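Hi again,

Forgot to attach this to my earlier email, sorry! This is the prediction with NAP bound. I've pasted everything inline since the attachment limit keeps bouncing my files.
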Amino acid sequence: MSGRLPSRDEKPVLQVGSTGHLGGLILRELLSRGKRVRALVRPGSDASKLPKDVEIARGDLLDPASLRGAVADVSAIVTSAIGYSQRKQGDSLRTDREGNRNLVDAARIARVPRFVFLSILACDQASDVPHFWAKKETEDYLAQQGVPFVSLRPGAFLYAPEGGYGQMIRQGLEQGQVFGMTPEGIRITYIAPSEVARAIAMAVDEPRALGQKVDLGSDRPLSGPEYAALIGQLLGRPVHLAQMQGGRGRSDDDMMAMFRFFQTGKYVADTRRQAELFGPVPRIEDAARQMLTGLGLLPGT
Ligand SMILES: NC(=O)c1ccc[n+]([C@@H]2O[C@H](COP(=O)([O-])OP(=O)(O)OC[C@H]3O[C@@H](n4cnc5c(N)ncnc54)[C@H](OP(=O)(O)O)[C@@H]3O)[C@@H](O)[C@H]2O)c1
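Structure tokens for the complex follow:
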């Protein structure tokens, strides 16, 4: 891992969600930038895979008292935690609403200088999509409470996670199918999770980011057929578009509402601010190649 070593005097960044898929990438980015990291990990959750130099603070977003010690004396909070993905029995949007409000309250009381929030692209236009709207409500609450924040709003992740979802994508591709979310002419923004993690880690101390809501994406949005054509081109064989069905382990109604929202054409990032703050916006080809490599369908570089 490259980057500078953390100074002993430097206050840690509190990361919430470090045991998650994206959370793990964010943690690596923070450490490679020389940040000291304190990870808020739920009691009973496995922290054994986190690097040894990460300080563990046991706590739960739904237990306000457990957050007090965790937020003390930190330089920033970074959170990508969600209940929407239902990693544990009983997880729900309560975490995304009430849990995030608890964290904002704790940040305000402890006067944390910066709260980096992982939001969702166009969440403020999607009142019919509960997990999008929960992000918008948290952004509003941060502003109302006067907590200095940066909100990053990425598009759809081109994901290759281990487990069921990654397997579903891989199996589809092996059978020449890709899951597309929009028809011809309606485009949405996709992004590589690594780029999201990079921007979040930079947002911790980029002075111009403070107070901003920043869309994150790749160089251009794609329709479903364009996405299938790109994947086929990278794999060197034809790939056809399959319709996305409801998911496993999440609320299907919420997911179907999200697919309906995608059909409005509003899920498209304006990447100008991303470029100003975080550097050149990556090409969609690179994001797709990264996903296919992660799925083991293209050789690594
Ligand atoms: N997928 C997309 O296309 C997309 C698009 C835009 C934005 N996003 C955002 O990207 C992020 C995805 O993150 P991810 O991949 O890391 O999610 P993930 O794999 O589902 O992990 C969720 C994390 O939240 C933690 N968590 C859950 N409930 C908690 C609680 N009550 N208190 C403390 N921590 C709690 C989990 O900890 P445990 O180990 O204890 O379970 C885990 O670390 C989300 O913020 C999502 O909204 C995704």
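The mean pLDDT is 94. The pocket of NAP is lined by residues 16-17, 19-23, 40, 42, 45, 60-62, 80-83, 85, 87-88, 91, 95, 99, 118, 120, 154, 156-157 (CB under 6 Å).

That should be everything now.

G.
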